[in-house]
DNA sequence: TATTGTTATACTCTATAACTATA
DNA sequence: TATAGTTATAGAGTATAACAATA
């Protein structure tokens, strides 16, 4: 199946290592986005939380943590500062008081809106360079990977 | 071009956001690998450095930093502990004394070899679930993305 | 002057465990 | 007993700037 060369460790090239390839691709893709976020003063993680909160509507924290790829203790801290900034609101779930439901505020939405054009322009430029078909294929495959792994 | 809905922020679904999709995919893919690395006691970052050092042969630190997706100050610290552990060696470049060349040691190779089978088995299982064609397509697309972005 | 790598620093995230309160 | 989230803590990475040595 795999060819075992004279080299002691029989690994694929790192370009064909899925975790490494995903990381490198993400670093590349994030570069222009980081420049944009630097201007907003908001961190990558907070940006993800905002995106997820806007998309998911009022949801419990665990859902946000999972979808924004953050651990709950990290999210607790992040939410503390984001609610203080007025970007999000938290309130206890009426049916299960253990849960706290997070909702994006108008100010949070406004922050997203302010940068929507620039963010979409960055995406569009990447799509143009990479190719629209390739971009769609890549996103499809990433989505399918998630589904098979669940 | 893009449709502006009633919703204030006109963003794609986060599933179709390339940075978020890449991050989620990576988190999923890393799960079994993290379990493996936990047993070795080596961190994700060190594992990447080892993989890159083995693949690239003796190279200067900047190359390792770029290929392992680490900043130079982080790499400096990581290399300090990895050379102390005897996994890597560093020596000044003969032609350009500013550069320091990093080389993997037999002990470093041995560490990789010890886990090659398990790592490859994890990869194979993922490939079986996801589909061999899909996996190849995904890796091809990620590689092409890197090239167009350079 | 520019480049390679180191050091210093402040901030943030990660990972884990122990804890509170609800269920 | 189990679950949702918080707190505490240790370790590590990020990001930036200032620096030393070399080119």
Structure commentary:
Chain A is mainly α. Helix content of chain A is 66%, strand content 8%. The first copy, chain A, is globular, with a radius of gyration of 19 Å. Chain A binds a DNA duplex (23 and 23 nucleotides) through helix 4.
Mind summarizing the main beta sheet of chain A? 3 strands, antiparallel
Structural class of chain A: mainly alpha
Helix content of chain A: 55-70%
Distance between the termini of chain A: 27 Å
Give the topology string of chain A: H per helix, E per strand. Answer: HHEHHEEHH
How many helices of chain A?
Answer: 6
Name the average pLDDT of chain A.
90
Multimerization status: homodimer
What's the overall geometry of chain A? Answer: globular
How many strands in all of chain A? Answer: 3
Return residue spans of chain A where pLDDT drops below 50 for at least 5 consecutive residues: 1-6
* Order of adjacent strands in the largest pleated sheet of chain A: 1-3-2
- What share of residues are in beta strands of chain A? 5-15%
Radius of gyration of chain A: 19 Å
Name the largest protein-protein interface in this structure: A-B, 58 and 57 residues
């Amino acid at each position: 199946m795999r060819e075992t060369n004279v080299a002691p460790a029989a690994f694929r090239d790192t370009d064909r290592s899925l975790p490494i390839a995903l990381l490198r691709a993400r670093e590349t893709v994030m570069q222009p986005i980081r420049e944009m976020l630097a201007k907003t003063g908001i961190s990558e993680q907070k940006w993800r939380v905002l995106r997820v909160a806007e998309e998911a509507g009022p949801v419990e924290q665990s859902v946000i943590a999972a979808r924004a790829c953050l651990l709950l203790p990290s999210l607790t801290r992040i939410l503390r500062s984001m609610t203080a900034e007025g970007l999000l609101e938290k309130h206890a779930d009426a049916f299960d008081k253990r849960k706290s439901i997070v909702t994006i505020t108008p100010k949070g939405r406004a922050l997203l809106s302010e940068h929507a054009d620039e963010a979409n322009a960055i995406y569009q430029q990447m799509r143009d360079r990479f190719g629209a078909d390739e971009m769609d294929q890549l996103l499809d495959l990433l989505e399918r990977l998630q589904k098979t792994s669940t």
